[in-house]
Amino acid sequence: MQIETPYLMFLGDVPDRLAAKTAYGIVDWRPEWCIGQIRLPGCAADLGIPDLTLDEALAKGCRTMVIGVANAGGVLPEHWVAEIVAALEAGFDVASGLHARLGAVPAIAEAAARRGRALHDVRHTDETFATGKGTKRPGRRLLAVGTDCSVGKKYTVLALEKGMRARGMDADFRATGQTGVFISGRGVAIDAVVADFISGAVEWIAPAADPKHWDLIEGQGSLYHPSFAGVSLGLLHGAQADAFVVCHEPSRTTMRGVQHPLPSIRQVIDLTIQLGSLTNPGIRPTGIAVNTQALEEDTARSLLDKLGAEYGLPATDPVRFGVDGLVDRLIAEFPETAP
């Protein structure tokens, strides 16, 4: 899948920022690709980039309109179809991270065929995966796990990739969600893989590598989330993780979209070790990543100090305060991967 850049980001009429997390993630990590946004009336998200019409975006060189939203079930709202068809008619390719296939909508498929435009369903792949085997393979792997979904797992491993490479380490981000695939240009949206093959798909994403190499694997969901725990477990087993970082958002009391209480960081650490030891008995926690966006800086730093002391692990907000402590801990735990 080769998606043409730069992008025009389509936000539809999403009700909040979190519903447009795909678009925000692309803008945060590939700002040079994101020329403008197009929004429908009532949209409550704003990427902070110019609002453009289709003609204006074409004039600025945009090649692909990216549907940068995530919703429950990954459905394509019917009232968005006309906007997508208009983009195809204007000469754009269209890429989507939704579960719903663009080509399954007759009007979209017909417009794409008539205009010779590409439809990219990032959440779907033509790759055939084997079942996971759990056989030990060389190289090191780190997995981001969470107390909930949408707590910063992707941002944590992207920040780690940047920080580790800056210090001369051999590290690659491995995308397991639609936003990560848009950012990295490769990967597999694990939540669209048939359940029996999830762990095998992760083994394919992060194959055998040089012993000094780190694959930094984007986590999904939470082992404690009743909706997504199955995906999280398959990821954990396929990753054969040597290390994991627990990602947390401190303002929540229940998990997103359900009434179940948020688990503690300790519960997540213990369960991750218990279940992850099936494919890697040496699995261990190497840090805590906290999304402190809702906290004042003094409050955030105080919380991180408290968590670091309580768990004996480096605790940081990777975006706000950097990842030096997390990288230091990885080098201390796995000195053979040092530059």
Automatic annotation (TrEMBL):
Gene3D superfamilies: NAD(P)-binding Rossmann-like Domain, P-loop containing nucleotide triphosphate hydrolases. SUPFAM superfamilies: P-loop containing nucleoside triphosphate hydrolases. Residues 129-327 form the D-glutamate N-acetyltransferase-like C-terminal domain. It comes from the Bacteria. InterPro entries: DgcN-like, DgcN-like_C, DgcN-like_N, P-loop_NTPase. Pfam families: DUF1611, DUF1611_N. This is EBNA-1 nuclear protein. Residues 44-124 form the D-glutamate N-acetyltransferase-like N-terminal domain. It comes from Methylobacterium cerastii.
